[in-house]
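Marked as duplicate of an earlier ticket. Keeping the data here for the record.
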Amino acid sequence: MISSNSEVVERLVSGAVDTHMHTAPGAFPRHDTDFSAARSAEDHGMRAIVTKNHHFETASRAQIVREELGFEMLGGITLNEWVGGLNHHAVDGAANFDADIVWMPTITAANHLENAAVQMFETEEEEKGGISVLNDSGELTDETLTVLDRIAAHEMVIGLSHLSPTESIALVEEAVDRGVEEFLVQHPHANFLNYTHDQMRTITDLGATLEFHYICTTEMMGNAATVQDYVDAVDIVGPENAVMATDGGATANPPAIEQFKSFVAAMLDAGVSEASIETMIVDNPRRIFDLD
């Protein structure tokens, strides 16, 4: 539901960036194609959107949208099984298409396969060990370290995706030492992550930014979070360490742009200041993705 003060919502959305959106084509039904999502965002005056796919890279698709429409769509690659997992060659390949972000494993992450209520990775049961960035001794694997070095070399953002909080904190700590500068912690309230406030403080103190998703307030994600949860988290880490995004695109929910506007309205109605919201949807995303 959009706030009664729709003029304020529209003004805040103008110039904003949705840092997490899913578009068609994809393995799962989506509301928008790359082009219709870009046109919708542009119609609302948004500065950019970042598109993600669980199976393959979106950087080349974003490149086509930028060339055809002149709108700033950004993309990257998710290091799931379909691209070879923690594969530094996949990172280098995506860099050839000006990828902006590398997401760690999502639906083929070991943590997701062990803890998520909804599974989307169809394979033989005995093969469902999943991908972890840690070895049996709790240290980052050699493959992970090589991936971090390639991400640093290409000056990409890291998305922590569905890694556990323990994995993510270890990865960020090491990646900072290797030269990676920007990190996004996707949906920390999701039931298969469930970051504590202490873990949120720890990972933001290391330099990461929490990415709150409107989808987590919907039935699709089991109502994993409430708007008040987000307000409380912002109070803990500060708006300078958070972004608001949708994780939108699934046909079970409204189109992403409608979710984005509803998120802004809900945060306003919960008492979050316009300045704080602008920090989270305009200033921080532009800094993270080096947008003017």
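See parent ticket for discussion. The CA atoms of residues 25 and 287 lie 29 Å apart.
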